[in-house]
Specification:
The chain starts with a helix and ends with a helix. About 70% of the residues lie in helices and about 0% in strands. The longest helix has about 50 residues, at about 10-60. It is built from 20 helices and no strands. The chain is extended, with a radius of gyration of 29 Å. By secondary structure, it is an all-alpha fold.
Length: about 375
Amino acid sequence: MIDYLNTHAEQIALIVVTFLAIFSFIVFVGAIYSRWILNLKEKKEKKIRERLSTLVIQYVSGDLSFENLKGELSTDTDYSILMQISNQLEKNLEGEEEIRLKRLLNLPPIRIFFVGRFETNDPLERAKACLYFSRQNKMKKSKLPKIMSYTASEYPMLAYSSCMAIIVHGSTRQKREAIHNLLINEGVSDQALNDIFKEFQIQSSEDGEVEAQLLMGFIAQKAYSDKRTALVIRTLGELNFYQSADFLLNEFKNLSEDDYSPVIAKALIEVLAQFGMGEILEDLHKLYTNSEHREVRESTAKAFGFFLDPVSKPILKWLMLDRDFYVRFYAAKSLSNYPDVQLSELDLPGMESDEYSELLGEIETSKELEY
């Protein structure tokens, strides 16, 4: 056997090299072909998107009749792209234009298309169906249990879209469970959660009492990461749920002086300052201006600008010498809110004149651009 291999070594090597060369050529051709097919598909979808975007805009503006637009829709690709366009447009539409768009999405072929996707095994297709359901004014309640189960999916897009459908069509209990599932899913982005909470506000009762209690319950559970808990706290502020102020103040007062979460402390300080809860000032003055965490010192400096307490003025001057730029920036900006303070006339030892001029310029820019 060894003699045979030695005798035919060159031929064997040639066969192996030839095989590898042919295999590499096939892989190369396959990759080129796949890329070519993908490019063709992308170009085709781009043309369809451009055509449908123009038609949909004409339709919602009243320049194109429902029947004429309906006649332009025929393929599954049309329906899928139409859903994407409607998701983008819906955020900017209201009144009659929004009604026209919803009527379009109720077309039987479109409804059949997305309902069919709901029964597939593909998570992305299920997500498309759930998003479609979330855009409907009503849906079959028999589908809600299955949609609820999707909120616990490991696939972020499916978890997000099913939660959106539950927020629109589900009960308070189902909404609580769906949001809980998203909060513990670290794959779901903060932006996706923000979208959920915005829709949550739209679907809220007039006084928002039930919804505020639900969000406070999530915070009280202490079951989520610091980042997620801070997001829920900020949501209470963004949704203007003032009935949560006392609860949040209690959470703030119960922070450990030596071992608190900086992201939670920052969120609490910002929301309580927004709510005008002056009860936090004493702790801000004594504890948080000296925090080792940059974000806490920054939120403290920002909060002082809401209250304009005389005791805060010397502290803000001291914070203007902080090692971090944004702490210095918000300290100076808060100080500029005091009617008896002229920043240009302050004498701050330890700060270079060029550095101070740059800081003043940033503050002027921020006021002009309102940030």
